Amino acid sequence: MREIFVILVVILVLLGLTALRYRKQIAGILGLARALKEAKDAVGHSRVISSDEKTSIPLVNCSKCGVWVPQNKARKIGEIFYCSDECLSVASVSADA
Ligand SMILES: [Zn+2]
Known about the structure:
The chain has 97 residues and is of the alpha+beta class. The chain folds into 2 domains: 1-56; 57-97, no CATH class. The protein has helices at 2-21, 23-56, 85-96, and strands at residues 59-61, 68-70, 75-77, 80-82. Strands 1-2 form a two-stranded antiparallel ribbon. Strands 3-4 form a two-stranded antiparallel sheet. The longest helix is centred in the middle third of the chain and has 34 residues, at 23-56. It starts with a helix and ends with a helix. The structure holds zinc ion (ZN). Zinc ion binds next to loops. Zinc ion (ZN) binds next to loops.
């Protein structure tokens, strides 16, 4: 029974020494795994958002600066879309002048 305890201690010491020796590599692998997981989460997240926008909200072209914006975020005057209040005001000022 005592031999098993000694063997366990030796194995733990060997594992500890191996971990000490390769701690930089282990930390690198753990960091890489974490980065991969974060990247995977980000990709899955953005894919969900973009597919939602594609299926539900059409893009419209700002008639002032040409930027494409989702229709629900665009300002609409008649049949003309603008990307922002800024483009809308610039366009209406230039139309008045
Ligand atoms: Zn614009």
